[in-house]
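Supplementary notes (optional reading)

For those who missed the lab, this is the record we used. Protein: ASCH/PUA domain-containing protein. Length: 78 residues.
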Amino acid sequence: MSKKHELKSLPEYFNAVYIGAKTFEIRKNDRDFKVGDTLVLKEIFSASKNFTGRSLEKKITYITDYEQKENYVVMAII
């Protein structure tokens, strides 16, 4: 069964996903991410870390840990 993972995202990264320029996320795999899961990216203000109110849902289509720091993964998202 697929899961939804709510993740905080700084404006520069959130906007890149929003416009389609960034089609991946690199994250610590502390949530047992799986292909088919949904990432709910919630934009936060850089200074205060409070939510801006904007969010996006993206599906994980591929995961790799190749050449990443220990316990980090790269996830392709659409």
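If you only remember one thing from this example: The radius of gyration is 12 Å.
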